[in-house]
Amino acid sequence: MTPPADPFGPDTTIDQLRKALSTQPVIEQAKGMLMLNRNWSSDEAFMALREISQHTNTKLHDVAAVIVACAGKGEPGLADADAATAVLDETSRMGFGYPFTNGSASQKRT
User: Fold this and answer.
1) What contacts 32, CB < 8 A, 6 or more positions away?
2) For the packed helices 81-93 and 42-56, what is the interaxial angle rounded to 10 degrees?
3) Which of 67, 59, 55 is nearest to 30 (CA)?
4) Which residues contact 35 (CB under 8 A, 6 or more apart)?
5) Could you give the CA distance from residue 88 to residue 30 in angstroms, rounded to a whole number?
């Protein structure tokens, strides 16, 4: 018999690191947008992304992708449209305002 695969073996660790590196840029972009738009620190922006992720049961990098797409006036482009809607509803609940909500340009900050 062959021993079971080690869930913490080097292959698993390498795969996890690759995934983390591939999702990091969009998370950093979203943090930067929130820092600029909300005048937050890096930690505050990350905490907000994490809170949205937890409240909507959406992966952090998907939350970040929605934030980046909204700020760029694009569509979130997630396979799960319900997740994108949940993220935008949560940003609205948290008072993010335009462009990070499902609302219109009339909600734009002055």
Assistant:
1) 45
2) 130
3) 67
4) 41, 42, 44, 45
5) 13
pLDDT tens-digit readout, 33-81: 999 989 999 999 999 999 999 999 999 999 999 999 887 766 666 667 8
Question: pLDDT: is 82 or 104 the higher one?
Answer: 82
Which of the 8 DSSP states describes residue 106? G
Residue located via tokens 């009339």: 106
Side chain identity, residue 36: L
Q: What's the predicted TM-score (pTM) here?
A: 0.71
Q: What is the dihedral of CA 24, 25, 28, 30, to 10 degrees?
A: -110
Provide the 3-class DSSP secondary structure of residue 98: strand
